[in-house]
Model the fold of this input.
Amino acid sequence: MPEAPVNPEEKKPQGAAVKKWPASVLLTLPFFFIVLPLYKASRESVNWRAAGLMILTFSSIAFVAGHFSVLREHWIWNPMRTLGPTVWGVPIEEPLLYYWFPPMFTVILMHAIDNWLGRKK
Done:
């Protein structure tokens, strides 16, 4: 008869300290070093009001979808891999790193490339 799978949590001695490691935050830090030069190259040409409204619209829709995904247990997070605070069950880094950063990065990258190509002409 095959042996039943062992829960890794059961192997830990009682009272053993478990290290918290917010992987998603630490693994995205290198991207901020890419954003700084792109921001400097594009800050004059970006319509910040339009970019902000676009990100606010996208974030609102994505946050509601994320909340329902958490309620239905389509999305789950390991609490030892997040920063800790949650809003409606969604970890705080979800809107910060996935709803705000990628659209802003895309806008900045698009304008930086456009400025670079415009200088080449």
